[in-house]
Design a protein that fits this description.
Elements: H1 2-18, E1 86-87, E2 101-105, E3 114-117, E4 122-128, E5 131-136, E6 139-140, E7 148-157, H2 165-170, E8 177-178, E9 189-193, E10 199-203, E11 212-214, E12 218-221, H3 222-229, E13 237-241, E14 249-252
Parallel strand pairs: 1-8, 3-13, 6-11, 10-12
Antiparallel strand pairs: 2-5, 2-14, 3-4, 4-5, 7-9, 7-13, 9-10
Protein backbone atom coordinates (compact mmCIF):
# COMPACT_ATOMS: atom_id res chain seq x y z
CA UNK A 1 0.00 0.00 0.00
CA UNK A 2 2.81 2.41 0.82
CA UNK A 3 4.38 1.90 -2.60
CA UNK A 4 1.04 2.37 -4.36
CA UNK A 5 0.40 5.51 -2.36
CA UNK A 6 3.73 7.00 -3.42
CA UNK A 7 2.97 6.28 -7.09
CA UNK A 8 -0.44 7.93 -6.81
CA UNK A 9 1.07 11.04 -5.25
CA UNK A 10 3.66 11.24 -8.05
CA UNK A 11 1.00 10.84 -10.74
CA UNK A 12 -1.17 13.48 -9.13
CA UNK A 13 1.73 15.93 -9.12
CA UNK A 14 2.50 15.18 -12.77
CA UNK A 15 -1.11 15.33 -13.99
CA UNK A 16 -1.26 19.09 -14.78
CA UNK A 17 1.67 18.73 -17.16
CA UNK A 18 0.12 15.82 -19.08
CA UNK A 19 -3.06 17.68 -20.04
CA UNK A 20 -3.47 19.60 -23.25
CA UNK A 21 -3.82 22.82 -21.30
CA UNK A 22 -0.41 22.55 -19.64
CA UNK A 23 0.30 24.50 -16.48
CA UNK A 24 -2.14 26.81 -14.76
CA UNK A 25 -1.65 30.54 -14.41
CA UNK A 26 0.14 29.98 -11.09
CA UNK A 27 2.87 28.03 -12.86
CA UNK A 28 3.55 31.05 -15.06
CA UNK A 29 5.11 32.88 -12.11
CA UNK A 30 8.82 32.42 -11.47
CA UNK A 31 8.12 31.69 -7.80
CA UNK A 32 5.99 28.70 -8.86
CA UNK A 33 8.32 27.52 -11.59
CA UNK A 34 9.33 23.87 -11.41
CA UNK A 35 12.69 22.72 -12.88
CA UNK A 36 12.00 20.14 -15.57
CA UNK A 37 13.88 17.43 -13.65
CA UNK A 38 11.60 17.90 -10.61
CA UNK A 39 8.27 17.73 -12.44
CA UNK A 40 6.12 15.03 -10.89
CA UNK A 41 8.30 14.60 -7.81
CA UNK A 42 6.24 14.38 -4.58
CA UNK A 43 6.68 17.28 -2.20
CA UNK A 44 9.13 16.76 0.63
CA UNK A 45 7.61 15.07 3.66
CA UNK A 46 7.36 17.10 6.89
CA UNK A 47 10.31 16.82 9.25
CA UNK A 48 10.38 13.46 11.02
CA UNK A 49 8.06 11.78 8.49
CA UNK A 50 10.38 10.46 5.85
CA UNK A 51 13.27 11.77 3.79
CA UNK A 52 12.73 14.40 1.13
CA UNK A 53 13.35 13.53 -2.51
CA UNK A 54 16.87 14.57 -3.53
CA UNK A 55 18.22 15.49 -6.94
CA UNK A 56 20.63 13.03 -8.47
CA UNK A 57 23.58 13.96 -10.62
CA UNK A 58 26.39 12.51 -12.67
CA UNK A 59 28.94 14.05 -10.33
CA UNK A 60 28.85 13.60 -6.58
CA UNK A 61 31.52 16.27 -6.24
CA UNK A 62 29.20 18.97 -7.55
CA UNK A 63 29.90 22.38 -5.95
CA UNK A 64 26.34 22.24 -4.63
CA UNK A 65 27.43 19.47 -2.25
CA UNK A 66 29.37 21.95 -0.12
CA UNK A 67 28.01 25.24 -1.39
CA UNK A 68 28.58 26.45 -4.97
CA UNK A 69 31.48 28.74 -5.79
CA UNK A 70 30.53 31.48 -8.22
CA UNK A 71 31.94 30.57 -11.60
CA UNK A 72 32.29 26.90 -10.68
CA UNK A 73 30.59 23.89 -12.23
CA UNK A 74 27.14 22.53 -11.48
CA UNK A 75 26.40 18.85 -11.89
CA UNK A 76 23.91 17.62 -14.45
CA UNK A 77 20.51 17.12 -12.83
CA UNK A 78 18.85 13.85 -13.82
CA UNK A 79 15.09 13.52 -14.10
CA UNK A 80 13.59 12.07 -10.94
CA UNK A 81 10.58 10.32 -12.50
CA UNK A 82 9.98 8.46 -15.74
CA UNK A 83 8.43 10.96 -18.14
CA UNK A 84 5.96 10.16 -20.93
CA UNK A 85 7.28 10.50 -24.52
CA UNK A 86 5.65 13.94 -24.87
CA UNK A 87 5.71 16.28 -21.89
CA UNK A 88 3.89 19.60 -21.70
CA UNK A 89 6.13 22.59 -20.95
CA UNK A 90 3.50 24.67 -19.18
CA UNK A 91 2.16 28.17 -19.66
CA UNK A 92 3.68 30.83 -21.90
CA UNK A 93 3.44 34.04 -19.89
CA UNK A 94 4.16 37.53 -21.17
CA UNK A 95 7.67 38.47 -20.04
CA UNK A 96 9.04 41.99 -20.41
CA UNK A 97 12.53 42.30 -21.91
CA UNK A 98 15.11 43.61 -19.45
CA UNK A 99 18.14 45.62 -20.48
CA UNK A 100 21.46 44.48 -18.96
CA UNK A 101 24.40 46.63 -17.94
CA UNK A 102 26.12 48.66 -20.67
CA UNK A 103 29.90 48.45 -20.34
CA UNK A 104 33.01 49.81 -22.00
CA UNK A 105 34.11 47.38 -24.74
CA UNK A 106 37.35 47.71 -26.71
CA UNK A 107 37.82 44.21 -28.13
CA UNK A 108 37.59 45.21 -31.79
CA UNK A 109 34.63 43.05 -32.81
CA UNK A 110 32.11 44.37 -35.31
CA UNK A 111 29.10 46.34 -34.19
CA UNK A 112 26.05 44.10 -34.02
CA UNK A 113 28.05 40.94 -33.27
CA UNK A 114 27.97 38.76 -30.15
CA UNK A 115 31.05 37.83 -28.13
CA UNK A 116 30.81 35.11 -25.48
CA UNK A 117 33.45 35.07 -22.74
CA UNK A 118 33.24 31.49 -21.49
CA UNK A 119 35.59 31.94 -18.56
CA UNK A 120 33.96 35.21 -17.54
CA UNK A 121 30.42 33.77 -17.86
CA UNK A 122 29.34 36.78 -19.90
CA UNK A 123 27.77 37.46 -23.29
CA UNK A 124 28.47 40.80 -24.97
CA UNK A 125 26.35 42.37 -27.68
CA UNK A 126 28.58 44.94 -29.39
CA UNK A 127 26.92 48.33 -29.67
CA UNK A 128 29.81 50.16 -31.27
CA UNK A 129 31.37 53.37 -30.04
CA UNK A 130 33.36 51.41 -27.48
CA UNK A 131 30.31 50.01 -25.71
CA UNK A 132 28.43 46.73 -25.38
CA UNK A 133 25.59 45.15 -23.47
CA UNK A 134 26.90 42.59 -20.98
CA UNK A 135 24.56 39.74 -20.05
CA UNK A 136 25.41 37.23 -17.28
CA UNK A 137 25.13 33.66 -18.58
CA UNK A 138 25.84 30.03 -17.78
CA UNK A 139 28.06 27.94 -20.06
CA UNK A 140 28.87 24.32 -20.81
CA UNK A 141 30.23 22.01 -18.12
CA UNK A 142 33.66 20.41 -18.46
CA UNK A 143 33.62 18.20 -21.52
CA UNK A 144 30.77 20.17 -23.11
CA UNK A 145 32.34 23.60 -23.58
CA UNK A 146 33.47 24.69 -27.04
CA UNK A 147 35.07 27.56 -28.94
CA UNK A 148 34.47 28.92 -32.40
CA UNK A 149 32.38 31.22 -34.55
CA UNK A 150 28.82 30.61 -35.70
CA UNK A 151 25.96 32.63 -37.12
CA UNK A 152 22.48 32.66 -35.69
CA UNK A 153 20.46 30.47 -38.04
CA UNK A 154 17.05 30.57 -36.36
CA UNK A 155 15.17 32.36 -33.60
CA UNK A 156 12.22 30.65 -31.88
CA UNK A 157 9.83 31.77 -29.16
CA UNK A 158 8.98 29.18 -26.49
CA UNK A 159 10.83 26.45 -28.44
CA UNK A 160 10.14 22.75 -28.02
CA UNK A 161 12.94 20.71 -26.44
CA UNK A 162 14.09 17.51 -28.12
CA UNK A 163 16.69 15.97 -25.77
CA UNK A 164 19.53 14.63 -27.97
CA UNK A 165 19.96 10.87 -28.18
CA UNK A 166 23.21 10.93 -26.19
CA UNK A 167 21.44 12.82 -23.39
CA UNK A 168 18.58 10.31 -23.36
CA UNK A 169 21.12 7.49 -23.18
CA UNK A 170 22.60 9.18 -20.09
CA UNK A 171 19.15 9.70 -18.63
CA UNK A 172 16.60 7.19 -20.06
CA UNK A 173 13.76 8.79 -18.10
CA UNK A 174 13.81 11.92 -20.26
CA UNK A 175 10.87 12.60 -22.61
CA UNK A 176 11.37 12.48 -26.37
CA UNK A 177 9.79 15.92 -26.62
CA UNK A 178 8.89 18.68 -24.18
CA UNK A 179 6.69 21.41 -25.62
CA UNK A 180 7.61 25.06 -25.18
CA UNK A 181 6.56 26.69 -21.94
CA UNK A 182 7.71 28.18 -18.68
CA UNK A 183 9.01 24.83 -17.35
CA UNK A 184 10.87 23.95 -20.56
CA UNK A 185 14.66 24.29 -20.07
CA UNK A 186 14.99 26.31 -23.31
CA UNK A 187 12.97 29.15 -21.85
CA UNK A 188 11.10 31.94 -23.61
CA UNK A 189 13.41 32.33 -26.61
CA UNK A 190 16.19 30.38 -28.31
CA UNK A 191 18.76 31.64 -30.81
CA UNK A 192 20.13 28.63 -32.70
CA UNK A 193 23.82 28.62 -33.63
CA UNK A 194 24.45 27.47 -37.20
CA UNK A 195 23.78 23.78 -37.84
CA UNK A 196 25.01 22.80 -34.39
CA UNK A 197 22.95 21.52 -31.46
CA UNK A 198 23.90 24.62 -29.47
CA UNK A 199 21.76 27.63 -28.67
CA UNK A 200 21.66 30.83 -26.72
CA UNK A 201 18.43 30.44 -24.80
CA UNK A 202 16.40 31.62 -21.85
CA UNK A 203 15.86 30.02 -18.47
CA UNK A 204 13.98 30.54 -15.22
CA UNK A 205 16.79 28.78 -13.35
CA UNK A 206 18.43 31.87 -11.84
CA UNK A 207 20.71 29.81 -9.61
CA UNK A 208 22.50 28.36 -12.65
CA UNK A 209 23.53 31.73 -14.08
CA UNK A 210 27.24 32.37 -13.59
CA UNK A 211 28.18 28.68 -13.62
CA UNK A 212 29.25 25.95 -16.01
CA UNK A 213 25.91 24.17 -15.98
CA UNK A 214 24.81 23.16 -19.47
CA UNK A 215 25.60 20.61 -22.17
CA UNK A 216 27.14 23.28 -24.39
CA UNK A 217 24.35 25.84 -24.70
CA UNK A 218 24.48 29.35 -23.25
CA UNK A 219 21.70 30.21 -20.81
CA UNK A 220 20.53 33.64 -19.79
CA UNK A 221 17.50 34.81 -17.86
CA UNK A 222 14.30 34.93 -19.92
CA UNK A 223 14.00 38.72 -19.65
CA UNK A 224 17.58 39.07 -20.92
CA UNK A 225 17.25 36.70 -23.88
CA UNK A 226 14.12 38.57 -24.96
CA UNK A 227 16.09 41.82 -24.84
CA UNK A 228 18.98 40.26 -26.81
CA UNK A 229 16.56 38.98 -29.45
CA UNK A 230 15.39 42.56 -30.05
CA UNK A 231 18.91 43.34 -31.33
CA UNK A 232 20.33 40.03 -32.62
CA UNK A 233 18.68 37.83 -35.22
CA UNK A 234 19.29 35.44 -38.09
CA UNK A 235 22.71 36.15 -39.55
CA UNK A 236 24.23 37.69 -36.42
CA UNK A 237 27.81 36.49 -35.90
CA UNK A 238 28.57 34.83 -32.56
CA UNK A 239 32.19 34.51 -31.37
CA UNK A 240 32.69 31.98 -28.56
CA UNK A 241 35.97 32.60 -26.73
CA UNK A 242 37.68 30.83 -23.86
CA UNK A 243 38.56 34.14 -22.23
CA UNK A 244 38.14 37.82 -23.03
CA UNK A 245 40.97 39.86 -21.47
CA UNK A 246 39.70 42.15 -18.72
CA UNK A 247 41.29 45.13 -20.43
CA UNK A 248 38.87 44.72 -23.35
CA UNK A 249 35.68 44.99 -21.33
CA UNK A 250 35.44 46.58 -17.93
CA UNK A 251 33.05 48.60 -15.83
CA UNK A 252 29.95 50.57 -16.73
CA UNK A 253 30.20 52.67 -19.86
CA UNK A 254 30.83 56.36 -19.14
CA UNK A 255 27.66 58.43 -19.10
CA UNK A 256 27.40 61.79 -20.90
CA UNK A 257 27.96 64.70 -18.55
CA UNK A 258 24.93 66.83 -17.84
CA UNK A 259 25.10 70.28 -19.36
CA UNK A 260 25.29 73.14 -16.91
CA UNK A 261 22.69 75.86 -17.13
CA UNK A 262 24.01 79.21 -18.34
Amino acid sequence: MRRHGTVLVALAALAPFLTAGGATTAHAQDRSWVPWYEIGVPKAAPAGKGRAARSTSDDDTSPFASGPVRGGQLAYQKSQVKFPPILQGGARPDISPQSPQTVSFRAGYAQGSIVIDTNGRALYYVLGGGQAYRYPISVGRDGFSWRGTEKISRVAAWPDWHPPQEMRERDPRLPELMTGGVNNPLGAKALYLGNSLYRIHGTNDAKSIGYAASSGCFRMMNAHVLHLAQHAGVGTTVHVLERLPNAYADGPAPQPKAKKNG
